[in-house]
Design a protein that fits this description.
The protein is 41% helix and 19% strand. It is built from ten helices and ten strands. The protein has a seven-stranded mixed β-sheet. It has a three-stranded antiparallel β-sheet with strand order 3-5-4. Strand 4 and strand 5 form a beta hairpin. The longest helix has 17 residues. It is globular and about 60 Å long. It binds S-adenosylmethionine (SAM). S-adenosylmethionine binds next to loops.
């Protein structure tokens, strides 16, 4: 970016800080720039200041930018290999503990926590009755969608295909043409609540935490605090799963033992030397 473009970019960022329900300082600049530039292309403007004018004048653009910044792209069974590797972790946890607490943070529209509960129900070696699942996200809209549990097959999303890792998907969803609705008896098993991973504190005594595909967007300054929140929420011996392009930061790597490095599954071992 040239110095002038840089100033313009910062003016857009300051406007977001003041006027849009989003905290830009948590996220890295490259990510913010990609999302803002995508909106600028859609609006056919080239300069940041020109875009700022559109943003100030058009309330629809404010909503569209907010949507673009809180990207909540997700899938059922995203990165299938990780879910295959997770089967033995879930078997071990549900065999050794009478109650197993799992947390999907962030859960976006709920497909990640539903995948977890569906996999546990589908695999005969896993006792899903011992499992309780919480999904949290910063976005109220995402949580509303998660609670509804209704997903559509579109030109770009094939929900039937996403569920194909399961032996019997029809036990968990009702299908009507292109609409897949998670059955009430599955929906009942998952709790959803709002939680900001940067600002809100840890939870307690989790056996398994997923924190996938958020850390890539978070500014390096906030990564360690997010990891501290996750670590403080885990039981010793509990598991952490991060996204396929993410890693546990160097500073805390000594308390996480890789269980499956390729699938980004780690065991929390604070007692290790
Ligand atoms: C790309 S989705 C990841 C969903 C899922 N974990 C997955 O891997 O498919 C990222 C989600 O992070 C949420 N998010 C962004 N900032 C957050 C924060 N500070 N705390 C909690 N959730 C946040 C967004 O609302 C979005 O739903």
């Amino acid at each position: 970016m040239t110095a002038t473009a840089d100033d313009g970019f910062m003016r857009v960022i300051r406007h977001i800080q003041d006027e849009v329900d989003f905290e830009p300082e948590y996220y890295n600049e490259a990510y913010l720039n990609r999302r803002i530039s995508a909106r600028m292309r859609r609006q056919n403007v080239e300069a940041y200041d020109e875009y700022l004018t559109v943003l100030k004048d058009d309330p629809n653009e404010k909503a569209a930018l907010m949507d673009s910044l809180t990207i909540n792209v997700t899938n059922f069974f995203r990165n299938g290999k990780m879910w295959e590797a997770l089967r033995s972790v879930l078997e071990e946890l549900t065999t050794q503990n009478r109650s197993v607490k799992a947390w999907s943070a962030p859960c976006a529209d709920g497909r990640e926590p539903y995948s977890l509960y569906m996999l546990a129900s589908d695999d005969r070696r896993i006792d899903e009755s011992r499992l309780s699942v919480l999904g949290t996200d910063i976005s109220d809209e995402a949580l509303e969608n998660a609670r509804a549990g209704v997903y559509e097959t579109t030109r770009t999303t094939d929900i039937g295909e996403e569920l194909s890792l399961l032996d019997s998907p029809d036990r968990y969803v009702d299908v009507e043409e292109n609409t897949f609705t998670v059955k009430p008896e599955i929906r009942r098993e998952i709790s959803f609540e709002r939680h900001d991973l940067v600002q809100d504190g840890p939870k307690r005594n989790y056996d398994l935490i997923f924190c996938r595909n958020l850390l890539i967007y978070i500014d390096s300054e906030y990564k360690i605090p997010v990891f501290e929140t996750l670590t403080d929420s885990l039981k010793p011996g509990g598991y952490l799963v991060v996204g396929m392009t993410e890693t546990v930061p160097q500073e805390i790597r000594d308390v996480f033992e890789p269980v499956n490095k390729r699938c980004r599954i780690y065991k929390y071992t604070p007692e290790r030397d």
